[in-house]
C-alpha cells in the first residue's frame, strides 16, 4: 500500500499546517512527546498574538499605541544664552555664519571622536555604545563636509 505524499491531493490538502499534526485525519496533541520542562509557560503563550490580520486592525493597533516619550527640553545654560545673544547682536555675513557653523560642528565632531577613542581602549565599554558614538561622529563629519561645500560667492 502506498503512503500519500504532500503532492497527493486528498483530505490532508485542506488540513492546517504548522504546529498541529494529524494521524489518520485525526488531530494529535501538539505537546505529545514533548519533554515536560518544555511545556508550560512557553507553550501556553499565544503565538504572534500581537500581529493584526487585516489592514484595518493594523491601523487600529497603531492609533491605540501610546506615543513615545519625547526627549525633555534642555534649559539653555548661561554660556549658551550669552553666545546666542552675542550672535543675534553681531552683524555677520553669510560666509562668517558658515565659518561659525563649521567651527561648532568640527568641535562636536572632535568630541565624539575622542569619546570613541576612549571607549575603544576601555574593556568595559559596550560595543553598541561605541557604535552609536562612531555613527554620530560620522554624521557630524558629513554635516561639516556639507557645510564646507556650500558656495556663498
Rg over C-alpha atoms, rounded to the nearest angstrom: 31 Å
Helical residue percent band = 40-55%
Largest sheet: 2 strands, antiparallel
Average per-residue pLDDT, rounded, comes to 78
Order of helices and strands: EEHHHHH
Low-confidence stretches: none
**N- and C-termini, Cα separation:** 89 Å
Shape: elongated
| Strand residue percentage | under 5%
Strand order of the largest sheet: 1-2
Number of E-type strands: 2
- Specify the structural class: mainly alpha
Helix count?
5
Q: What do these coordinates show?
A:
- By secondary structure, the chain is mainly α.
- It has a domain of 58 residues.
- Helices cover 50% and strands 3% of the residues.
- The protein contains five helices and two strands.
- Strands 1-2 form a two-stranded antiparallel sheet.
- Helix 4 runs antiparallel to helix 5.
- The protein is elongated and about 85 Å long.
- It starts with 21 loop residues before the first strand and ends with a helix.
Summed up:
By secondary structure, this protein is mainly α. The chain has helices at 41-44, 55-64, 78-89, 94-121, 127-149, and strands spanning 22-23, 26-27.
Secondary-structure map:
Blueprint: E1 22-23, E2 26-27, H1 41-44, H2 55-64, H3 78-89, H4 94-121, H5 127-149
Antiparallel strand pairs: 1-2
Helix pairs in contact: 4-5
